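Worked example (supplementary).
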Amino acid sequence: MNGLKIMSREEWQAFVDKLINEDARQVVGPRSKGEKFVFDQLDSADELRLDHDVTILPPKKYFLPTHEDLMTYDLKHPFNVKGTQEVEPRVIIGMHPYDIKALLQMDKIYLGDNVDTNYKARRDNTLIIASDILTVSENSFAASMDSITVGTGFDLLVTVLGDKVAVQVGSEAGQELLAKYGNATDASQDVQGQVDALRNALPSKYSKKAPSPDQWTDLLSKHQENGVWDENSKKCLECGSCTMVCPTCYCYDVDDVSSLDLKEGARMRTWDGCLLREFTLIGSGEIFREDVKERYKHRFYRKGMHLPKRYGDVACVGCGRCVSACLPDIADPSQLMDKLSQSPSDVAKHLEIPKQSVTTPVEGNLLVPEPATIRSVETLTDHEKLFVIELDSGKPLGHSPGQFVEVSIFGIGEAPISVSSAPGGNTFEMVVRKVGDVTEKLHGMKSGDKVGIRGPFGHGFNTGAMKGKNVLFICGGLGIVPARSLINFVIEHRMEYGQVMILYGCKEPSEFLFKTDSANWMAREDIQHITTVDTCREEDAGAWDGEVGLITTIMPLVTFNPEQTIAVVVGPPVMYKFVIRDLKNMGVPDDNIMVSLERRMKCGVGKCGHCQMNGVYVCKEGPVFTYKDIKDLPEAI
Amino acid sequence: MKPRVAFFDFGCCEGCQLQIANLEEDILKLLDIVEVVSFREVMKEHSDEYDIAFIEGSIERPMDEEALKEIRENAKILVALGACACIGGVNKLRGEWSVEEVRKEVYEIADPKDIEGNPYFDLLPNAKAADEVVKVDAYIPGCPIDRAEFGRVVTSVALGKTPKLPRYPICVECKKNENVCLFEQGKFCLGPITRAGCNSACPNHNSPCEGCRGYLDEPRLEAAKDVIEKYGFTLEEMLKAFNMFNFKKEGY
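After joint prediction of all chains, the assembly is encoded as:
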């Protein structure tokens, strides 16, 4: 790019006014609101406050709005979905370096893989005129976070130098904008010197300091049991303000809002925050991070450990917005990290993220479901039905065993459901337990009805690792559903495996799923199949010919070489602990144990944040993990 | 057949029904999916055959309790509309005085003969929220109700989706609306412990939240007390604000 340019203050004002009046794009910048500042539309250059210290919300709101329609639907023709809304082209003036740095982090998340269509459209249609910091916010510690100057991520960067304004060009688009509306000349060496001096003087203006970001991950790994987590979380209002004002927070929630005549509606996305109680709530009512202390901790671990491990940057730029927004004064990362650095450390735990993340092949908008038709419905028990689904495109789903899909009913919402059939064929099967609104509605649907499907998502079972080995399935309750996809796959390729053992238990005979499959497995010489129920009432005893007792009671009935056996464990959260304990006692190595976990997988593409266990996205790295990969994650089992 | 809807009011100002009447064109959309059989604010006809009953107001008298129980028996779905029906609201303030004192204050010049033994003047010891008398299936809180939320709850009920109220405080919406925090302006705001869903209506106009939507199910009271102390508010200011819509609520 060309060198530094210079214009007078009047010429700068004229440039901004021309931009506002003559350019078709919306022009926004920091304006005053009470004693604070907010990014808002500019109607004249006089409103622009380049001397602002910080705005209440970051300019993130222009890329990931507080509320947006992801798609609009017509309830009479639910799949005539209109995707991304028209994006308003925009010029943002006055973005500070820390906000640019935060936006570049956001790009890695939303544009890196599983690209978010709406975010990309806004990013492509926005020009950024950054500005050097003139006034330092009292709550900011951006100097410690290396985010008070920035070299990329802007189209133009302006520095107000008294009655002059220096302009650095950062892109061709910025160059064009300057040429079209501005009257800038080449700056002398002297001007560059003044800009450098202004930037060099900045760090000393920050009275608030934080431990250097390259220490954060280490500090957090060594202080998981520190008393500060208890002490501070007791004071937490759980108001979510710290996450709402954060320029690097990106979690969201989605809800269907229909018009009063129920003719149409919009699937809306809005900001969500991990401090809020219902963040990890799933359809069955379970909340995975119920303790406020764990939620309080999660925010810091995300910023200082999980996101750095995944994307390479500490997800805090030191803007200090959370410091201002937090009424009980406990959200301040600089204070917290400082406290940790002064405490004796406990045993370091690193909470690694397994490297088995799956990127969904991009084909258009990942959040828009494709139409599919229910081909048949079979009632399995009082609570479960089996659905055979065919995509209207006629294409096979293309899943691997253990993956899931997001099933969509417009007006109600979406739910993650495991695929229970083996790969192949033009239809696929899923078993749905009636636990929430979407599944309740599904239970009322019949052959020929339409649903929306997204996916398949997630990392399934590593079938390659099982070849030539014995396979031991241990399934509890609904766990048989995702496992069945693998069981039938293994049976189709029976010659490639050693012993095949299928242990299946459920609460009582009435909850027993896949009776036909079970009978077939039972009949085969080359499969050992044992079933059990936790309890069996007397009146059911005649019809029940399996065992009675917990799943762990039938485990000793099979014998195998533990080193040569892959154990596939799928069941309710409570089952894992006991089954895995017994498997370990039998000598099965940790990386021979595969588990499939259930969380709130809302987006399926590693963005919305709801399914995270510590730093692991269950929708991306999971739902299938080896026990070795997750045994040290406090939130996993 | 469209579900039949009836509106009933007890101790209230009928402002919440007025909010619905004020939906204007949108009310026509509503009539596409329901048949309104009783709605005093907009029509004079009345029928006792209905599927969905909207209850406005708090329950003041034994005769109201009986009426509400009867409505409950007739309706498949009963919805509490507005602060008075959802939490008792301002009507509960009369709990500060005895029934006799209240009657004397209000009907001082009336002939005692007209009042004694007359069921219209027979008050319960204090006003009750609808769910203190019967089972309530859905709530649309607020004083008055928020029309957008009314739409969300009604469409949810109609589509068979569980109508869900936020379980997080007003602060979430207030931040999204980029308001300057009222605490920072030295004002006492109930936002941190009040259930969201109104799109932070009052703070958007720089007025503190008064808690008309009721408190959160699990409010962080100890944390809130610390904050109140930190900002230097007095006990008197606090109680005044607390009692307005949530009179002497347990734990506060």
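Two points are worth noting when inspecting this output. The interface with chain A takes residues 23, 26, 28-30, 32-33, 151-152, 154-155, 158-162, 167-169, 171-172, 175-181, 183-185, 191-193, 206, 218, 220, 222-224, 226-227, 230-231 of chain B (CB under 8 Å). Residues 17 and 41 of chain B are 7 Å apart (CA to CA).
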